[in-house]
């Protein structure tokens, strides 16, 4: 059983984060990027060609994280691989003892720097989850047996901040029913949308199947906020937030305050069992933000059984 | 393409933008063809839908799933069809491309799934 599965099973508050993408630099670069946030994490996501840009593969990064003593969450997107390749990566991951897998649709190739590439989408994310669940039960999609069945702990993503807003919790339920046990929610800069999503998810009983882990990002400037508003599919940043950061004497500090406010708000929503952090480069901001939020380190959480500040 | 498939294409292409996947699910997706989604998603909208409802890939086009969602609520469709909106649809069988879904519906071929599909479901 992965330590993420164990923590969520025991009702402990969890912290996950996205590993910055790795191109060159080998294991030294992996260690360098991981080191400042590691003490706070239950597990770290190995991303899969984020924003449709090629990087070191999620399976390779997941193995590298294990070698650094960090538990990985291997992300798999549907954009670049057909069902055979996805199944091969699931079984290949389990060969290395990787259990946490997060299944995503994936940004389109047009979001990346090789927009001329063929997009695959042989499966969609709920189908990928159901496929991974079949693999975990000892069957490839064909029905061919995998003996003994690999143990997988499956998760997915949902975006509370993208239309159709009223349907997003229903889609989260679909993913939970297809096998997702945790849902790392897309970064959402509008607290009202997250509130509406978590309330509806609670009404539908999503929390009985899956833990909600809202994502928080720490940026450094109004320019960066404007960039993700314009360039990252599915994320909108309200003009008010950008203006507030723009007007601040110290933009980095203002961004940190924005992240703190959003994280504090997210932690108070029903069904929220932890936080997922996304930063785009080596960034001690995650550790600093956890300290300001009163979230103890991973070792302290394990020792004292730290729970979510709100009843779930 | 057979006679029936040609007839189906003539009827469904202009109305629904039919892509002739051969396993039609229109009735369960608000009479909006999911194969016209640039990612060909059959189980709901991706996370890239723009704030104005535009498609991530083709911003000038309204998200196919947003249209399907709205139509499934608005159109006077049978309740059973509306319920199916939230069902998990199986992966596409790529061998059926270009065949008549009308025939595949009658023979049940369009509902055949791989032996491992659904394994591990409780």
**What is the helix content of chain A?**
40-55%
- Ends distance of chain A: 22 Å
Radius of gyration of chain A: 18 Å
Task: Give the amount of beta strand of chain A, in percent.
Answer: 5-15%
User: How many H/I helical runs of chain B?
Assistant: 4
Strand and helix order of chain A? HEHEHEHEHEHEHEHHHEHH
Uncertain spans of chain B, ≥5 residues at pLDDT below 50? none
Low-confidence stretches of chain A: none
What is the N-to-C order of secondary-structure elements of chain B (H for helix, E for strand)?
HHHH
Gross geometry of chain B? globular
How many individual helices of chain A? 12
**Main beta sheet strand tally, sense and closure of chain A:** 8 strands, parallel, barrel
Distance between the termini of chain B: 40 Å
- On the 0 to 100 scale, the average pLDDT of chain A is 96
Bin the strand percentage of chain B. under 5%
Number of strands of chain B: 0
* Helix-residue proportion of chain B: 25-40%
Tally of strands of chain A: 8
Alpha-beta content class of chain B: mainly alpha
Query: Biggest interface, and residues per chain?
Result: A-B, 47 and 37 residues
Main sheet of chain B, how many strands, which sense, barrel? none
């Amino acid at each position: 059983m992965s330590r993420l599965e164990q923590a969520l099973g025991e009702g402990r508050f969890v912290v996950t984060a996205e590993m910055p993408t790795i191109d060159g630099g080998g294991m030294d670069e992996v260690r360098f990027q991981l080191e400042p946030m590691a003490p706070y994490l239950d597990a770290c996501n190995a991303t899969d060609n984020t924003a449709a840009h090629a990087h070191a593969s999620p399976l390779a990064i997941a193995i590298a994280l294990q070698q650094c003593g960090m538990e990985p969450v291997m992300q798999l997107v549907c954009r670049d691989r057909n069902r055979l390749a996805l199944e091969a990566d699931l079984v290949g991951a389990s060969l290395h003892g990787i259990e946490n897998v997060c299944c995503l649709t994936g940004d389109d190739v047009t979001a990346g720097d090789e927009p001329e590439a063929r997009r695959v989408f042989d499966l969609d994310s709920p189908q990928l989850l159901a496929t991974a669940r079949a693999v975990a039960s000892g069957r490839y999609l064909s029905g061919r047996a995998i003996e003994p069945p690999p143990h997988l702990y499956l998760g997915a993503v949902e975006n509370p901040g993208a239309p159709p807003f009223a349907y997003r919790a229903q889609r989260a339920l679909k993913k939970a029913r297809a096998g997702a046990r945790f849902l790392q929610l897309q970064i959402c800069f509008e607290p009202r949308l997250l509130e509406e999503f978590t309330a509806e998810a609670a009404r539908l009983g999503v929390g009985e199947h899956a833990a909600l882990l809202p994502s928080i990002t720490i940026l450094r400037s109004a320019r960066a906020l404007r960039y993700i508003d314009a360039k990252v599919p599915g994320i909108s940043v309200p003009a008010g937030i950008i203006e507030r950061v723009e007007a601040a004497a110290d933009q980095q500090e203002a961004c940190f305050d924005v992240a703190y406010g959003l994280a504090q708000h997210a932690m108070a929503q029903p069904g929220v069992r932890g936080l997922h952090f996304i930063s785009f480069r080596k960034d001690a901001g995650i550790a600093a933000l956890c300290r300001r939020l009163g979230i103890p380190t991973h070792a302290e959480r394990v020792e004292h059984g730290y729970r979510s500040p709100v009843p779930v | 393409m057979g006679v029936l498939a040609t007839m189906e294409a003539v009827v469904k292409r202009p109305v629904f933008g039919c892509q002739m996947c051969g396993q039609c699910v229109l009735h369960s997706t608000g009479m909006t063809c999911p194969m016209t989604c640039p990612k060909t998603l059959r189980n709901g909208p991706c996370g890239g839908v723009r704030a104005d409802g535009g498609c991530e890939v083709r911003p000038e086009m309204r998200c196919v799933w947003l249209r399907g969602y709205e139509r499934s609520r608005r159109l006077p469709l049978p309740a059973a069809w509306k319920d199916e909106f939230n069902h998990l649809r199986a992966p596409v069988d790529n061998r059926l491309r270009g065949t008549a879904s009308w025939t595949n519906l009658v023979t049940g071929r369009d509902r055949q799934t791989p032996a491992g599909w659904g394994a591990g479901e409780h």
